[in-house]
Description:
Elements: H1 20-24, H2 33-50, E1 65-66, H3 69-74, E2 83-84, E3 89-95, E4 101-105, H4 113-121, H5 127-143
Amino acid sequence: MNASTGMYSSSPSIATNGGFASEIAGQEPHAIDRELSTLIKDNYAVADARSGTSMLDPILPGTWARMDDATVRAVGIDPSLLHDAKSGFDASLYRDAGGAVVVAYAGSNEWKDWPHNFGQGLGFQDAQYDQAIALAQEAKRAFG
């Protein structure tokens, strides 16, 4: 966030340390892309289950597993950072057998998300955006 304007850049930089993130970065297809898209689909199911609109389908690809609240807490992240009913923010953490971790965010899945989209798109401070950054920082601290 720019301290003088109170606005965010629309193109934040992504820092990688040569690990999992750098292996999957870029525009070229990767073998894992289908697995990652399934994690995103599961995250939307988690968001719907939290709001009571659907049931979870626990089938995930490969060795991926959704991290439950106890596991999230054990790595030092407050599970309440994954969901905020007031703002509509939802996210999930996933880990595979090799130790790779994915933070999956639910995008615009409710009407109340659209004011957040417009405000953040115009560079204004926004609760969902701030929550996404806070979770990313905690995940970076916990997993590197």
